[in-house]
Amino acid sequence: MKIRSVIKSDVPQIIKLISEVWAEYDCVLDTENEDKYLLAPDDYFHTQNGEFWIAESDRKIVATVAVQMNDAETAELKSLYVRDDFRKQGLGGDLTKLAIKFVLMKNAKKIILWSDTRFTKAHRLYERLGFKKSGERELDNLNRSIESGYERGL
User: Fold this and answer.
1) Where are the alpha helices (H) located in the chain, listed in sequence order?
2) Could you identify which of 5, 30, 46, 55 might form a hypothetical disulfide with 63, taking C-beta atoms 3.0 to 4.6 angstroms apart as the criterion?
3) Going from the N-terminus, what domains does the chain have, and what CATH number goes with each?
């Protein structure tokens, strides 16, 4: 298993992975309108004072995570996805800890995230890592998503 920063040529595999995870919940990934940042994640997250990482096994992307700075003290975790056959091995936790370590070096005081209410397995992971539910929001998007907010002090 290798974890590294994203490069432009990773984009097709990233979109495939995230689309497959979303399909497990009868959701559709819309990179044309809603998740455009996935078309150039390296550029997007670097402009947000953040980073996007992938985990690969046998040259296949099996997991992703990203983090950005929303302001001087608040970071946001984004795009934590793990391929189904790589779950329950600690990879999601390791990637989240990598993102936290990154924002600690930027002197962030807290980290937040938003996750579709259907992604309950991910919510259990976040709670095990010390995140507390902080609210809910309804999105006007293709999947009619309702998201739970989580935050954790650093």
Assistant:
1) 11-23, 41-47, 91-104, 120-128
2) 55
3) 2-109 (3.40.630.30)
pTM of the model: 0.94
Q: Of 3, 1, 22, give the one whose Cα is nearest residue 145.
A: 22
With 0-12 / 13-18 / 19 or more C-beta atoms within 10 angstroms meaning exposed / middle / buried, residue 142 is: middle
Q: Is residue 27 within 8 Å of residue 74, measured between CB atoms?
A: no
**Secondary element (H or E) of residue 115:** strand 110-116
CA–CA distance, 148 with 54 (Å, rounded to integer): 24
Q: How far is CA 70 from CA 3, 18, 25, 73, 118, in A?
A: 24, 23, 28, 8, 25
Name the residue type at position 39.
Answer: L
Q: Find all residues with CB under 8 Å of 102, minimum gap 6, and list them.
A: 50, 51, 67
In the DSSP assignment, the letter for residue 21 is H
Taking CA 134 as the corner, what is the angle to CA 68 and CA 123, rounded to the nearest 5 degrees? 75
pLDDT in tens, 76-105: 999 999 999 999 999 999 999 999 999 999
Residues 6+ apart with CB under 8 A from 86: 55, 57, 62, 63
Is-contact 89 57, C-beta < 8 A?
no
